[in-house]
Amino acid sequence: MAIFLVTLLVLWLPLALPAFWIFNRDPNLLALVTMPILYIIFIGLVQWWGKRIHNHPNLLKRYGLVATRKNARDLGKGLILGWGICLGIFVIQGLLGWLLWRSPSEKLAQIILEGLGIALVVGLVEELVFRGWLLDELERDYSANLAMWISAIIYALLHFLKPLGEIIRTLPQLPALIGLGLILVKAKRSHQGLLGIAIGIHMGLIWAYYCLNVGNLIEYTQVVPIWITGIDNNPLAGLMGWLGLLILGYSVYAKKI
Fold it and tell me: Of 43, 36, 53, whose CA–CA distance to 2 is shortest?
């Protein structure tokens, strides 16, 4: 696994570094440029890895990334679920008087399209890496339950590659990220090992939050502590995020989707 990741970085960095220099002031555009490059390299490396290391002709199919009608339907269901849960969290806060809704800007349509692009790229790449490649590698050596927990913990920890002060300040987000990782693994397994449902949920959460946050559609009233609404207005770093995860987890584990 370490060899695979090092190889991926060696192939990606020479192409990504110029983009980091050119688009360093626009993180959203930077993600739109660099992540597809990483995804394309990852796909090629996975195909080679499957044939040379695991003697498997098509690891992408094993990971659950296949072009089928069911996978497409699952992606759509997950997208609606993720969007609805994220939006619902903010609607509840608005009804409780914890935030105010602001008038949309003239760039809202552009923000919605940008958000969709970022959600598609990030959701596809992260699910293929964490619920695809990483989970599959772990399941080869560990039980299904242990592999699920290890993959979820690694997924959460990799979101904390930042200065120590920021790690400590945003640490409440860690358990929620682990919980999300567990839910996404369960979602995949409950849909015949297909990635569509996990990609859709991930996309929906990112897209809705991007539209609300970048579109400046909400403004917190500061009438409740940030441990309720979330550090940096991120629901996953607060009690409201846990409410959303509980609803999402129930929907997945009770097979409501």
Answer: 53
Sign of CA dihedral 87, 85, 151, 195: negative
Nearest to 186 by CA among 119, 134, 253: 253
- The predicted model scores a pTM of 0.89
Q: What is the pLDDT of residues 113-159, one digit of tens each?
A: 989 988 998 899 899 999 999 999 999 999 999 999 999 999 999 88
Q: Band the pLDDT of 228: cuts 50, 70, 90.
A: very high
Answer whether 45's CB lies under 8 Å from 4's CB. Answer: yes
Measured CA distances, 239 to 96, 136, 141 (Å): 14, 32, 35
Q: What is the CA radius of gyration of the chain?
A: 19
Return the number of other C-beta atoms located less than 10 Å from residue 143's C-beta: 10
**Which residue shows structure tokens 């003239």?**
106
CA 136 from centroid of its chain's CA atoms: 18
Distance between CA atoms of residues 223 and 229, nearest Å: 10
pLDDT (0 to 100) of residue 65: 93
Residues 195, 67 contacting (CB under 8 angstroms): no
- From residue 230, alpha-carbon distances to 56, 58, 140, 171 in Å are 44, 41, 37, 11
Residue whose tokens read 């080869």: 140
Distance CA 191, CA 252 (A): 10
Residue 228 contacts by C-beta under 8 Å, 6 or more apart in sequence? Answer: 98, 238, 239, 240
